[in-house]
Amino acid sequence: MARPMPQGRVSGHVSGRVLATRAVAVGASVAAAYGGFLLFLQFGAADGLDSFDILRAALIFASTFWLAWGAVTAVMGLMTRPPVPPRQTGALTARSVVLVPVYNEDPVATFGRIAAMEASLRKTGMGHLFHFAILSDTRDEAIAARERLWFLRLLAETDGEGRIFYRRRDKNKGRKAGNIEDFIKRSGAAYDYAVILDADSLMEGATMVEMVRRMEAAPGLGLLQTLPVIIHARSRFGRIMQFAGTFYSPVFARGLAMMQGRTGPFWGHNAIVRMRAFAESCALPELTGKPPFGGHILSHDYVEAALLARAGWDVRVDDDLGGSYEEAPENIIDHAKRDRRWCQGNLQHSRLLLAPGLKAWSRFVFVQGILAYVAPVFWLAFLAASIAAPLFAPPIDYFPVDSWPFPVLPVSQVSKALGLAIGVVGLLFLPKILIVIDAIWRGRVAGFGGALRAVQSTLAELLLSSITAPIFLMFQTRSVLQVVRGADGGWPAQTRGDGSLGLGDAWAASHWIVTSGVVVLAAAQWFAPVLVPWLLPVALPMVIAPALIAWTSRPGPGGLFLTPTELRAAPVMDLQAAVMRRWAPEGDTRDDPPAGADAARA
Amino acid sequence: MMDLSQQERFDLDRLAEELGALPEAPLAMPVQQLEQPVFPALMALLRPRAVAQAKAGH
What pLDDT score was predicted for residue A490? Predict the structure, then answer.
């Protein structure tokens, strides 16, 4: 007999529609990967099949599967749409807390966002039902002192005593997950729900109220994730990421939502959790062994989503919820630093693939996260194997038949290689092209400067992302190798704000990529000159990496990559701007107490 | 003698701690099991070890 689920939770039944979507997505991806495998095998076998051909074909299979998976997810997102929960109305009674973990952040910027969100919540008339808790793990004493001063200013300006809290931990055990756990153990029983944010998160009050309503309407819902939109980007790189995140991501997220059913994602912030569900399901253990694979769980969000699902709670992403924002790195180096941390966290999930009781989809999500970082290594291994292959290839036998006196020339299979290359490029480009067509069809391009500007921005994004892809490939490969070697990346604070880099800084961070690019081209020229034209699109951006990194870190002309929030700021962004106009001049005077600190004392 | 500006900073810090104090409403958070008991044993088994030295003496 089936074990009855505790109150509020739902059964683990996966709907037929979700199962069918998963089957189609996996089937299509495997079919594309197998097609790539066969094409390459035919190409490689033209001069006789050897072990290098089989290795390269296997690498093509794994890499193509990953590319196809992304493409299929986008197509799913375009073709299907999860039901949108009806907007709720009426009075609320549930008590919620907005958690803002901070770690060596600029207090003026962070607390300014809190002031804006608090004002936005007050406008909904439900502000009294929401508290804020600033959970500081800051280790820098000078920044911590400024946090306390600006907290007093925040209290004075919002009249927030008893509604806005601040506490700093002596030791940051468990990092961000441990920080939240510490709060729940001390104060969790005071609240029904917790909105978990990052230091750079910004959310409309109306969105938070709607999230609480949706949690109230679905007692089995343990976590509701929003789709945060990147805002405030200034550099070329930042604005490209901002455009891509705003224009493409909703479609990918929708496709993913169709496949994940009740086992949705948690991205660590801009989400709401049911306090009781989170408390009873999500205390993370410290893994046996040393970092990077042991110790604290770095990418805790994926694991918390899996644990909620294991305990029978629904985890859902509602992409129709607007008003959810975040900021992102302004240059490739800061992006790579953040990616290093995520890489370590995702590879650490290999320890959890066999964790007891997890849903099959949760395990698959871990595999996806690992593949996201291992796939670039496969591509690089494929390139290296291709350059090395001629060294190990047996000499061509022009007289394979003893009784036949004329030479038999191998049939050229270049068309197969071309077909494969076109297929790979197609998998990369097709989803984005389909998304722009869909956006024109549905009129979504209006928020991106109109149809012409959206098409121009998409083409420019495709070009720039293709040029910078080899640089990301190198950074990701290095991250994977570091983690596999056992190097712990630690917990570096995020760099926020203006991220413009000089050529010297860019060179210092990427000279090894330049060297690698030169070595690749030289090796190809030496061992397999026929490969040089094929390798140029990869090797050339590596050789000019410092120039690309520096150029993309600076602001560009504003015509391209427009997004809805650039064209018209969201209400909470206006509130944030108003707060910063008042605070920023005082924020620069590091040691003097801000004006409001004295008011709070009075 | 304590510097006056230091005293002022000390007062503000103390005030921030007092006004910022979190509500006391504890909630239990039991640690979840994520590792199969066999996994650490397997890791220990696979861990590279130095070749055992022969015992001295008899």
Answer: 64
- Where helices occur in B1-58 by DSSP H, the ranges are 4-20, 38-46
Record the pTM. 0.87
Looking at the complex, does the CB of residue A395 fall below 8 Å from at least one CB of chain B? no
**Cβ separation A285–B31 shorter than 8 A:** yes
CB atoms B32 and A285 under 8 Å? yes
| Stretch 354-383 of chain A: residues touching chain B, C-beta under 8 Å | 354-356
* pLDDT tens per residue, range A263-306: 999 999 999 999 999 999 999 999 999 989 999 999 999 999 99
- With beta carbons less than 8 A apart as the criterion, state whether A317 and A257 touch: yes
Task: Say yes or no: A145 contacts chain B, CB-CB below 8 A.
Answer: yes
Q: Residue A500: exposed, middle, or buried by beta-carbon count in 10 A (0-12, 13-18, 19+)?
A: middle
- The letter for the amino acid at A234 is R
Residue of A307, A534, A313 lying closest to A424 (CA atoms): A534
Alpha-carbon distance of A516 to A520, in angstroms, equals 6
Q: Starting at the earlier edge strand, list the strands of the sheet with A314-317.
A: A164-168, A130-136, A96-102, A193-196, A271-274, A221-225, A314-317
> What's the rounded Cα separation, in Å, for the pair A36 and A511?
33
pLDDT in tens, A423-473: 888 888 999 999 999 999 999 999 999 999 999 999 999 999 999 999 999
User: Which of A157, A288, A350, A353 to probe the B interface (max B CBs under 10 A)?
Assistant: A288
Three-state DSSP at A541 gives helix
Which phi and psi (to 5°) does residue A345 adopt? -65, -45
Q: What pLDDT digit, counting tens, does each position of A186-201 carry?
A: 999 999 999 999 999 9
Alpha helices, DSSP H, located in A291-402: 300-310, 332-348, 360-392
Which of 556-595 (A) contact B at CB < 8 A? 593
Contacts of B34 in chain A (CB under 8 A): 284-285, 287, 297, 303, 307, 352, 355-356
A579 CB neighbour count, 10 Å cutoff: 23
ipTM over 0.85: no
**Sequence-distant (≥ 6) Cβ neighbours of residue A24 within 8 angstroms:** A72, A76
Average pLDDT, chain A: 89
Q: Is B22–A351 a contact, with Cβ atoms under 8 angstroms apart?
A: no
| Stretch A110-117: mean pLDDT | 98
Alpha-carbon distance A374 to nearest alpha carbon in chain B (angstroms): 22
- Which of A133, A186, A593 shows the shortest C-beta gap to B12? A593
The distance of B16 to chain A (nearest Cα, Å) reads: 6
Q: What is the DSSP string of A111-174?
A: HHHHHHHHHHHHHTT-GGGEEEEEEE----HHHHHHHHHHHHHHHHHHT-TTTEEEEE-SS-TT
Six token digits for residue A391 = 């060294």
Q: What are phi and psi of B54, to 5 degrees?
A: -70, 145
Measured between CB atoms, does A351 come within 8 Å of chain B? yes
A155 and chain B in contact, CB less than 8 A: yes
The reply to whether residue B25 touches residue A600, judged by beta carbons under 8 angstroms, is no
Question: Which single residue is written with the structure tokens 């350059």?
Answer: A387
Task: Tell me, rounded to whole angstroms, the distance of Cα A63 from its chain centroid.
Answer: 19
Write the CB contacts of A102 (distance below 8 Å, at least 6 apart in sequence).
A110, A134, A135, A136, A137, A138, A147, A199
* Amino acid letter, residue A329: P
Flag if B32 and A600 touch (Cβ within 8 Å): no
Q: What's the burial of A90, exposed, middle or buried (CB within 10 Å: 0-12/13-18/19+)? A: exposed
